[in-house]
């Protein structure tokens, strides 16, 4: 197995400035602070930058997940509502289970970044390990990589990715082949859907 990406970026796409600017700002900040930690690997895999129109999407996503050290989840209520993003999440859980057999994981491979909280609270899939809360971010927050309100959390994310990177470099079985990894089926919704309420 060859490590090609420091982190796979998993997020629900948005059409308007708030979601797209947050994603772009976070990508820019993480690339900036991750660069000194890697040899020749790309800092991040972001589908909007690295997928072409003719790609076999499932195969390319599966391979990119397998060749990534960790996964960043930009959590919004929209994220858990989309089957495909839940599928990426489930895929990285499978990868984490496999890597547990190679070395003692210092932490989970999935790093949730809270952009927008769900009105009834965060799901346990997100709160099961470390997560960072960026829900105070607005379009007026400016450059994330230079904003002192967010830098401690960015540093925490970078440290976690770098720690896993060095573990993975030392412990990956040389015969491991990421071309064999396939995405799981779309998992069920994270929250039970309440029954409809009919007027009495």
From TrEMBL:
<protein>
    <submittedName>
        <fullName>TIR domain-containing protein</fullName>
    </submittedName>
</protein>
<feature type="domain" description="TIR">
    <location>
        <begin position="8"/>
        <end position="136"/>
    </location>
</feature>
<dbReference type="GO" id="GO:0007165">
    <property type="term" value="P:signal transduction"/>
</dbReference>
<dbReference type="InterPro" id="IPR000157">
    <property type="entry name" value="TIR_dom"/>
</dbReference>
<dbReference type="Pfam" id="PF13676">
    <property type="entry name" value="TIR_2"/>
</dbReference>
<dbReference type="InterPro" id="IPR035897">
    <property type="entry name" value="Toll_tir_struct_dom_sf"/>
</dbReference>
């Amino acid at each position: 197995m060859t490590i090609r990406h420091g982190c796979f970026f998993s997020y629900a796409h948005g059409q308007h400035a708030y979601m797209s600017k947050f994603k772009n700002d976070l990508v820019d900040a993480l690339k900036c602070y991750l660069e000194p930690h890697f040899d020749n690997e790309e800092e991040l895999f972001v589908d909007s930058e690295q997928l072409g129109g003719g790609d076999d999407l499932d195969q390319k996503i599966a391979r990119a997940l397998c060749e990534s050290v960790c996964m960043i989840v930009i959590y919004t209520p929209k994220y858990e509502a989309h089957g495909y993003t839940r599928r990426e999440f489930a895929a990285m859980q499978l990868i984490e289970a496999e890597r547990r057999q190679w070395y003692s994981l210092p932490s989970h491979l999935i790093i949730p970044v809270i952009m927008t909280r769900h009105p009834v609270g965060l799901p346990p899939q997100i709160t099961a390990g470390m997560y960072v809360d960026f829900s105070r971010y607005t379009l007026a927050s400016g450059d994330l990589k230079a904003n002192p309100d967010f830098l401690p959390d960015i540093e925490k994310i970078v440290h976690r990715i770098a720690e896993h990177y060095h573990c993975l470099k030392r412990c990956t079985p040389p015969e491991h082949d990421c071309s064999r990894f396939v995405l799981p089926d779309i998992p069920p919704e994270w929250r039970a859907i309440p029954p409809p309420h009919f007027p009495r």
